[in-house]
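Weekly sync, protein design subgroup
Attendees: M.S., D.O., the rotation student, P.L. (late)

Item 1: inverse folding check
M.S. brought a backbone from last month's batch and wanted to see whether the design step gives back something sensible before we order anything. D.O. pointed out we never logged the input encoding, so this time it goes straight into the notes. Structure tokens as presented (531 positions):
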């Protein structure tokens, strides 16, 4: 029985057919334009086969004493996975799996040409020994397996041999994308996990599958595809876990196309959960078990403290970066933000480097509550202006008791909300340095400490130029001694906004006493004159 049917995209005479369980929300997002073999959708109730929607008639057929079950609602953060097949644990590879005709025997034998294979799976745990995820052929063949309990292995053997491995440690609580490519033209073989390349090899093979049937969740035929030679004839068990998507392309997908396939399933939002430590650079610290891509919106909140290392293994990047509810992002590294820096609730703190990487237009510091800004290096842009929006407060510095000098390279437009500075003592105050033009349309708040004695001058903002006249700036002064009278002015040729204050004249007690005696004397003299 077929569930969730969709129309296959046709480009010219090339049928783009995907072999997957849940495709309804992926339509138009998965890499297209490649000749593919299968488009499989889930069975209602998991009957004996997983049908091919491309019309080839090649279906995965389930076997075993215990039927592979169908999970209509797996627990996952990935928006593109809505159902999966569950392969039960079994120490005997003869049960609980699916079989398919060997690739050598279908569609004109594509096994001597370039190819790409994609599999989305979630192991029950990573202590299940050696398990077969997918395989085709026998000694001449290919396979994706889990070896040693926690290592993903991509093997192909036929006229040559290649083996690629990578660790899956800490990734088992979410579906994992494994993507393997064979480039017969350039003798190059690559393995990807969750959209990122983890291994590449240059070697030559002439055939990536023999004549045996293919296996999904277990081995079919005489042995696991490609096992032998250096890879060894290991005894693999049936897979224990879930499989949601499997695709086959008769071409070598590029890294960008592999990433596009990943994002089509993973969705646009990723959240830090810190399941291992506080590092941005650890895949398992994110709810999708992968570091964010630059097209994904990143959320830091609920008191999470994230550290961006100076030299991450993959770029620290995001589309929109939201920091809420006591969350903070610090470290010596720099985050490339293609969209906006956002705060929607509570207090967020950014004290890691920030580069607004959007190519043009305006990128926003959008603050609804409170965002503290204290980046260790200047905030940079890639041809964009920076603007503050929202009704909240953007605080310069991450500690109200310590002065901080924040720098911005580019133009700065304070459109709305409050831009807040702290004056700490007679020598120290927060400052904002901007290389370009500054517009001050929102409120500029200055909080003076109570210990100030007056006659101090503080540089608040330096700029290439100010586009807002002084009389149009909405200042909000708070704190300081009771008798202080703050003032603001442009100095240094109109490129620096300064604030200063002088205490009002309050007579000393002895002066008051003399004045009182004088008044009494005048009153007595007037009284005598009237008499």
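Designed sequence read out in the meeting:
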């Amino acid at each position: 029985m077929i569930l969730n049917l969709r129309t296959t995209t046709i480009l010219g005479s090339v049928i783009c057919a995907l072999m997957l369980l849940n495709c309804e929300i992926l339509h138009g997002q998965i890499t297209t334009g490649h000749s593919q073999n299968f488009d499989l959708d889930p069975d209602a109730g998991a009957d004996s086969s997983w049908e091919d929607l491309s019309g080839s008639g090649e279906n995965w057929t389930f076997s075993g004493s215990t039927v592979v079950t169908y999970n209509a609602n797996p627990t996952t953060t990935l928006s593109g996975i809505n159902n999966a097949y569950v392969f039960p644990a079994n120490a005997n590879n003869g049960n609980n799996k699916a079989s398919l005709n060997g690739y050598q025997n279908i569609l004109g034998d594509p096994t001597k040409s370039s190819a790409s294979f994609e599999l989305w799976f979630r192991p029950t745990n990573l202590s299940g020994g050696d398990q077969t995820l997918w395989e085709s052929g026998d000694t001449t063949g290919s396979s994706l397996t889990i070896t040693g309990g926690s290592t993903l292995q991509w093997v192909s053997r036929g006229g040559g041999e290649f083996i690629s491995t990578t660790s899956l440690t800490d990734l088992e609580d979410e579906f994992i994308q494994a993507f393997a490519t064979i480039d017969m033209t350039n003798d190059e073989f690559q393995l990807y996990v969750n959209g990122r390349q983890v291994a590449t090899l240059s070697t030559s093979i002439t055939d990536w599958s023999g004549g045996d049937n293919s296996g999904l969740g277990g081995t079919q035929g005489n042995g696991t595809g490609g096992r032998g030679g250096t890879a060894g004839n290991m005894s693999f068990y049936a897979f224990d876990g879930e499989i949601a998507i499997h695709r086959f392309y008769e071409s070598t997908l590029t890294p960008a196309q592999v990433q596009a396939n990943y994002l089509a399933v993973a969705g646009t939002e990723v959240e830090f959960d810190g399941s291992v430590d506080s590092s941005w650079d650890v895949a398992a610290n994110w709810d999708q078990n992968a570091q964010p891509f630059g097209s994904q919106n990143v959320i830091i909140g609920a008191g999470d403290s994230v550290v961006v290392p100076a030299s991450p293994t993959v770029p620290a990047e995001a589309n929109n970066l939201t920091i809420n509810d006591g969350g903070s992002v610090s470290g010596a590294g720099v985050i490339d933000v293609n969209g906006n820096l956002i705060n929607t609730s509570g207090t967020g703190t950014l004290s890691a480097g920030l580069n607004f990487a959007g190519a043009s237009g305006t990128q926003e510091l959008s603050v609804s509550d409170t965002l503290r800004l204290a980046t260790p290096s200047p905030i940079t842009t890639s041809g964009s202006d920076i603007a503050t929006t929202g009704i909240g407060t953007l605080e310069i510095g991450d500690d109200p008791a310590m002065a901080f000098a924040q720098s911005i390279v580019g133009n700065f437009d304070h459109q709305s909300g409050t831009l807040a500075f702290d004056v700490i003592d007679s020598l120290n105050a927060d400052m904002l340095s901007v290389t370009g033009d500054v517009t001050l349309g929102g409120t500029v708040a200055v909080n003076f400490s109570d210990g100030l004695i007056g006659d101090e001058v503080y540089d608040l903002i330096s700029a290439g130029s100010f586009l807002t006249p002084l009389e149009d700036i909405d200042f909000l002064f708070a704190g300081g001694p009771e008798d202080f009278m703050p003032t603001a002015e442009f100095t240094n040729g109109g490129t620096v906004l300064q604030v200063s204050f002088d205490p009002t004249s309050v007579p000393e007690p002895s002066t008051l006493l003399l004045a009182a005696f004088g008044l009494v004397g005048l009153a007595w003299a007037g009284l005598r004159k009237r008499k």
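Discussion: The longest strand covers residues 328-337. DSSP finds two helices and 42 strands in the chain.
Action: P.L. to compare against the previous round before Friday.
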